Amino acid sequence: MTEKSLYTYPVLCFAAFVFWLVSVPMDGPLAGAAGVANASAAFLPIHVAALLLLGLFCPRQAFFRLVPAGCLATAVLTLLLFFKPSAGSWILACMGASGAVVAIAACVTLCQSPVPLLCAAAGLVMGNLLVLPVLLRPLDSFWIFAAVAVFLLAIPVLAAHLPDPEPMEMPDETGPWHYLPFILLFKVICGLMYVIVMPAYHQEAAFPGFEMLFYVAAVFGAYRLTRINRDLALIGGVVLGMAAFTIMQTAPGLFSANAGMFALQAATGMVDLVLIAVLLDLADPVRAFGIGLAIVCTGIAAGELMGRYFAGMTGAIAMTGHFVLNLSVLVLYFLGRYGYISSAGSAQTPGLAETKPGPAAVAEAGPAAPVPDPGRDRPGSAAGEDEVEKKMPRYLRMLLSEREYLVLKKVLAGKTYRQTALELALSESTVKTYMHRVYEKMGVSGKKKLFEKLSNL
């Protein structure tokens, strides 16, 4: 396969999944055209259960064998929704099970790209923009449902041409799992959006479909911020969410419905991309995306339940939104702080495994000594690697995954890609892929620029 395919195929697979998700089960326009009210309520419970089962108990190779069948079943159920709208709730419940395979498969393809986060951003943008022409055509057309189904069928075909993602040897406990409780709480806001804000917006929308452009713009902004510090993107999402609920509470009417939806879509776009960045850093992609997406869907389902309880109570909804957003920030801070303290204690206590610092580590780590030029301190030796690690900026332990960090450490110590591949039991092309990811996260274009940036810190 060509190198170009490593960039385009993951984008297309992920965009196909996003297009289907937004168009059908998450109260999308096609579910509405089929006459299914509260489509997500029928879809989410089974979807959460299926995601957890796959993430916790399905072996990697067994999962990859399920992908063609899962995509085919989801495509058939999408078409069946057009022909049998009277059974829409049951169809969406079955879609929750098969769609779990589609969701994880599409996300795992991102791990097979040299620039996974860029592919994720492009896929989110493309998938949401594909919904715009759907909204401009008669939704009772069979060909609209068929187009969504065909996109789903493309996922196993394209994924089959990508190399299998290699699991990291490090345990998942070293990854940034502490972000997931924040994501869970934030997604409660998304559930409120689906149940309360979106119906009000559809009645008052000045430019139907225009809200997706705010989501797209926020994804681009989050990509830029995440390359600097992913916590900045999270804070941006929280601020936009608070702005949305403030607008709803203080400026009711046409302006409130439109501006509130625009702000919430932008907040969702920022947090969605950070979520993917977090899950990409975890060890086993199938396990990471199975558990991570289940947490997301649980938060949305909880928000929808709260929204139905507070239906018609604008003040209570706004207060709930503010409370949840503030709580999510506190959870992120304290869990991140705990992760950093635990990491510091482990580093000073013999016999304890070293763990990654939490997000507070960047602010508290303080200045670090410059990274040595590659080749110094007996390049290629264990002593050389130890010297490199002492002088590497501490924030890299948070920014990079364990495998990316190990590869970078060996390269900085003067080892070639071939030597690094042999020592880590990887292929040489996989080592290059990890280095591409390091370049992407560090915002540089190659090895020379990376060395210059690290030497200047």
Automatic annotation (TrEMBL):
Region called Disordered, residue ranges: 352-388
Bias (Low complexity): 357-368
Transmembrane segments: 7-24, 30-56, 63-83, 89-110, 117-136, 142-162, 182-201, 207-225, 232-255, 261-282, 289-310, 316-335
Keyword Disulfide bond recorded: no
GO MF entry, a single one: DNA binding
Gene Ontology biological process terms, A to Z: regulation of DNA-templated transcription
Superkingdom in the source lineage: Bacteria
Protein keywords: DNA-binding, Membrane, Transcription, Transcription regulation, Transmembrane, Transmembrane helix
Residues covered by the HTH luxR-type domain: 393-457
Descriptive protein name: DNA-binding CsgD family transcriptional regulator
Source organism (scientific name): Desulfosalsimonas propionicica
